[in-house]
Structure formats: C-alpha cells, structure tokens
Amino acid sequence: MRAARKSGAPVLLGHTERVSADVDPSAVVFASRGVDDHWFCFEQPDRAGAALAALGTVARLTASGPARFKQVAAAWRALAATAVSDLPDGPPGAGLVAVGGFAFAPDGGKAPHWAGFEAADLVVPEVSFARRGEDVRLTLAALVGPDDTAEDVAARLAARAAGLSLAPLPLLDPAPVGHFRIDSVAPPEHYEAAVARAVERIRAGAFEKIVLAREVTVNAPTAHDAAAVFGVLRSGFESCYVFCAGRGDAAFVAASPELLVRREGARAQTVALAGSTRRSADPAVDDHLGEQLLRSNKDREEQAIVVRRIARALRPHAVWVAAPDEPEVIKVANIQHLATPIRAQLAHPVGAIELASLLHPTPAVGGEPHAMAAPLIPAFEGLDRGWYAGAIGWTDANDDGEFCVALRCALLRDTEARLYAGVGVVRDSDPASELNETEIKLGALLPILAG
Ligand SMILES: C=C(O[C@@H]1C=C(C(=O)O)C=C[C@H]1O)C(=O)O
C-alpha cells in the first residue's frame, strides 16, 4: 500500500507459501476455472514433476507486430520492478510470474478460430502453483492501488484462495457415443504439391529450408474436454512439455518435445530438434529406425541448419555457447527426432522473453534464411498458424523462465478441434514421405481427440 501511495500507481503484490505435496497444480486450475478466467498449465512430468499452473488475471500484457516480444517484456519488467513480494524461494516459477504465449507470426492468428489468442499474450495470474518434486508453492497476486487498505487486499486474496477446488482431473470418456468427423482442411494432395514446389525453389537456390504445415479438424459429437485431454497427454508424453492455455471457451493444448529456451540466471539452454522417423513396438526395429535417422544425410542436414542458426543467434549474447558435435536420437511416444542440446553462458542479462525472441522462429519451424522463407510459409500452406509453432511458457520477476515451441498441438473450441503438424522441407525432401511424416505427428493427438 505504501509503495502504491508513494508512486500513485498500482503496485503488484505477491504472497507465496508452501502447500501440501498432494496438491496437483494443473488439476486445481482446471477444477477452479470460472467462465471468464484465463488459465495456463505447463508441465514436464519427467523433470521431477515440474509444473507451473496459473489461474485468473491480475494484468494482461499483449502486443502485436515485429516488436511484440520486446513490448511485453518491457511491460512485464515495469510491473516486476515495483512489485512487492516474498523473497524468491522454492521451485522455478514460484513467486510472481507472467504466463502465456506468442503466435508464430508477428501479427498472430487473424482467423476467427484464433480469437482470444493474441500475437503476444502474457497474463499475470491471480493464482499460480509451481512444483518440483515434493515442493509445491502457491502464489496469490493482486494489483494494489493507492486507496486500497491492507484488509481489502487480504480479503481479496483470501476469497480467491477459498474458491480453489482440489478435484482431480476428469477422465477422458473411453467410449464416447456419436460420430467423429476428421477432415484435412486442404486436400492432402495440395500439401504434397506445396512440398514439391518448395523443393523446386530450394533446388533453384532461393533458400535452404522451409517448414510447411497442415491443419486437420476433428468434429466431435460432444464438446472436447481440455482437462481430460491434458490428463491423457501428461501421462503419455512424460518427457514432453505438456501445456494447455485457456482463453474464454477455447483451449490450446499440446505435448511438445521442443524446448525453445530455458533461462536460469546467466545460463540459457535450448535444443535444436529436427529430422523425424516413426517408432516401432519392436525394440530392435525401433533402434534400427533411430540408427537410420542418425545416418540420413537429408535429416542430418535439416537438423544441422537449426544448430547453426541457434548458435549464431546466441553467440553475440554469450561468453560461450556449447553444443555436442553429433546429434542424439530422442524418442517420444510416437516419433523419434534428431536433437542437439545447446547451452550458453550469457554475457549480459538477457531475459527469457528476449531470448525467446532471439531464437523464434528457429528453422525447426520456420526456414533458412528466415527472411526468404517467412513470406512463403503462409503462401504455400494456405492456413493460419495462430499459436501453432509459436512460443509458450512463463517468466518470473528475475526474467528467468522457460518457453517451449507449440508443436503436437490442438486448438479446442466446443465440439471442434484443429490440429497442426509440419515438416522441414529441404532439397532432398520427397512429398509423399513428408505427408506421411505429418500423419505421424498428427498421431500424437488425433487418437485422443477423435474417440
Ligand atoms: C514442425 C513440427 O516439428 C518440427 C519439425 C521436425 C522435422 O521436420 O523433422 C521435427 C521436429 C520439430 O522441430 C511439427 O511437429 O509440427
């Protein structure tokens, strides 16, 4: 109150406390949502149950255009600079945070189905939980004005806390009644033709790589249940970033294998992920497929392009950038990829949002050179990516944070789901194989959403 009176402007206030290890952060958020609430759940189950789940809106920071990352970073910094909160303690993400996402394109999703998901869209939540292992912290936040009394603020926070429900996540209906309709928004032949045209341009020397995606819709007999879908994803994709961001009656949900950036103090971490092959239930065949991927010149080049670009983007801001010479094969539920973990020691304080802006879009989802490929992506694809292939995550008051790339995702609104999957096209790409690769990627969510 004193800080607000002194400056005459509202001040962000945060109170953090430890809660029982039994509290399931995402389940609480899903169960406690009101119709007008923004909500956000972000987990990586394999990393000691890392979770950040948030509900409600103290402030919403939005922007559009090429400077959108910078603009929301500045707005968050202004709020965080005068904030009054407990000393940082507990797992990453405990304390005051801003959570949300950035669309793939600078101007974001313009199609009606992306309504509510702004080009840059962070929310400072009223309630947030952070978990690592057995350590679960609850943070309650409010904007305190010069005329607020301590009693008013305490009553507001207590009322929000009292409204939280501890109900578990709902189960997905295993045998829904009714008919599901699955449609490829554009005919698959269009996709193959777009890949073929892109290959021609690459061979003519216009650019090196472009990522082209498809959109598939699932119309269900009853409304899609984002909470149940999230529950299935987090138990089936434990190594992935499993997230769900809610805006009004829509939810954007995913199980993404791709970290865009994690920033902890002067350390930044990312991964160059590209090149894909299917999994097999037979372990010997599965390993053989992984070996083939490691030896495929086409996939190695596709992935090396991403490594080079990430290193180039980080170097001007780093004391050192470290990446192993050879990629490794990572196996996710239905697919395997080539991956190179990349770490950097930052030379000056670059926040998590600025790091995301330096890296996004990597050639894992955009193209190389980006300036050449960027205008061709919507032209070839004929779809509105919205938040697909954008950056989703959180940042704290120290500008630490974590953003993943929104892949293996779906936008759910009532009975409709829109799924997105893309592949990297290079000079040796074969249109039929690339179409098949989109099917493998769609296979992460399709069986869950299509009954
Ligand atoms: C573009 C997607 O995935 C990206 C493209 C990959 C590829 O082309 O092999 C692999 C992993 C991701 O970086 C997607 O899942 O939609």
Characterization of the model:
There is one protein chain. The protein is α+β, with helices and mostly antiparallel strands. The chain folds into 2 domains: 1-163, Anthranilate synthase (4-Layer Sandwich), CATH 3.60.120; 181-223 and 258-450, Anthranilate synthase (4-Layer Sandwich). The chain has helices at 2-7, 25-32, 68-81, 150-162, 188-203, 226-236, 283-295, 297-314, 352-359, 370-373, 376-381, 431-442, 446-449; strands at residues 11-19, 39-44, 50-55, 59-63, 84-85, 97-102, 120-124, 127-132, 135-144, 181-184, 209-219, 241-247, 250-256, 259-264, 267-278, 318-322, 328-332, 335-346, 367-368, 391-396, 401-405, 409-413, 416-425. The strands form 2 sheets. Strands 1, 2, 3, 5, 8, 9, 10, 11, 12, 13, 19, 22 and 23 form a 13-stranded mixed sheet that branches. Strands 4, 6, 7, 14, 15, 16, 17, 18, 20 and 21 form a 10-stranded antiparallel sheet that branches. Strand 2 (39-44) and strand 3 (50-55) form a beta hairpin. The longest helix is centred in the last third of the chain and has 18 residues, at 297-314. It is globular and about 65 Å long. The N and C termini lie far apart (52 Å). The mean pLDDT is 96. The site of the ligand C=C(O[C@@H]1C=C(C(=O)O)C=C[C@H]1O)C(=O)O has 17 residues, from strand 11, strand 15 and strand 23. Residues 211, 213, 258, 273-276, 337, 364-365, 407-408, 421-424, 441 line the site of the ligand C=C(O[C@@H]1C=C(C(=O)O)C=C[C@H]1O)C(=O)O. It is an enzyme of class 5 (isomerase). Pfam families: Chorismate_bind.
